[in-house]
Amino acid sequence: MSPTPASQTETQTRPRVEGEREQEILDATIDILAEVGYDRLTMDAVATRAKASKATLYRRWNGKAQLVIDALISEKEPMSAPDTGNLRDDLLGAFCGLGGLTDARQIAILGSVITAMARDEEFAEAFRRDFIGPKKELSSRMFARAQERGEIRKDFDLELIAAALPGICLHRTFLLGELPTAELVEKVIDQIILPAVANGCD
Q1: Residue 98 has what pLDDT?
Q2: Residue 15 burial (C-beta neighbours within 10 Å; 0-12, 13-18, 19+)
Q3: In the chain, where are the structural domains located?
Q4: Staple partner for 147: which of 27, 49, 124, 152, CB 3.0–4.6 Å?
Q5: CA angle 159, 74, 183 (to 5 degrees)
Q6: Inter-residue contact 107 to 179 (CB < 8 Å)
Q7: Helices 43-50/64-75 angle, 10° precision
Q8: Does domain 79-198 sit in CATH 1.10.357.10?
Q9: What pLDDT, in 10s, does the model give residues 99-157?
Q10: What pTM, to 2 d.p., does this model score?
Q11: CATH of segment(s) 6-74
Q12: Each residue of 141-199: pLDDT tens digit?
C-alpha cells in the first residue's frame, strides 16, 4: 500500500477552522485590535479571548498578519460600486454610511493598523492587496464610468482623483483629529472633486 501523502495526512489530522467558530476567532481579533492596536495584538491573546488553542489558530492562519487581514475583511459589508448614473451620488453612496469614511468603528480600526504598516512589511503588503485593493478597484470603476458618461474630461488622471476624497478625509482624521462626517464628505465632493474633474469638459 502506498503511503498517504503528507499533505493529505495533515488535512485529515488538522481540520480547517470554519463557519461560526472561525467568525468567533475573527470577532475576537477585531475586539483586541480595537483595544490595543496591531503591534500589541498577539496570537496568544486572540486564542484566550476566543477560548481556543494557539494550535487551532495556526491550523487556519500562518501568523497574525493574515489573521488580522481576514478579520478586517470579515467586518466589511459586501462591496459593490454604486451605479446611480452620476458621479456625485455614486461617491456619496460609496463613502458615506456603514463601512465608509463616516463609519467611526471602521476608522478606529484603520487607525489601529496605520503604524504597523510602516514596520511590518508582510502585514503592509497583505493589507494593501486584500483590504485596500478591492476598495481601490471599486473607486476606480466609479470614476471610469463617470468618464465614459462625459462627467470627467478624457485626459484626467483617474488614479489621482480617486485617491483625493479618502486622502482628504483621512488626513483630517489622523492628523487633525476630526472624524469625517457626511457633511464633510459632501463638501469635498462638491467643492473639490466635481469641479476638478469637470473643468474643460465638453
Answers
A1: 65
A2: exposed
A3: 6-74, 79-198
A4: 152
A5: 55
A6: yes
A7: 50
A8: yes
A9: 678 888 778 888 888 888 888 888 899 889 888 888 888 889 999 999 999 999 998 99
A10: 0.74
A11: 1.10.357.10
A12: 999 999 999 999 998 999 999 999 999 999 999 889 888 889 999 999 999 999 999 86
Which cell goes with 201?
469638459
Tens digits of residue pLDDT in 40-96: 999 999 999 999 999 999 999 999 999 999 998 887 655 567 889 999 999 998 888
Question: Given the C-alpha cell 487633525, which residue does it identify?
Answer: 176
Distance (Å) of CA 46 to CA 8, 109, 130, 181: 28, 16, 21, 32
Three cell numbers written together for 57: 489558530
The three grid cell numbers given for residue 170, joined into one nine-digit string: 483621512
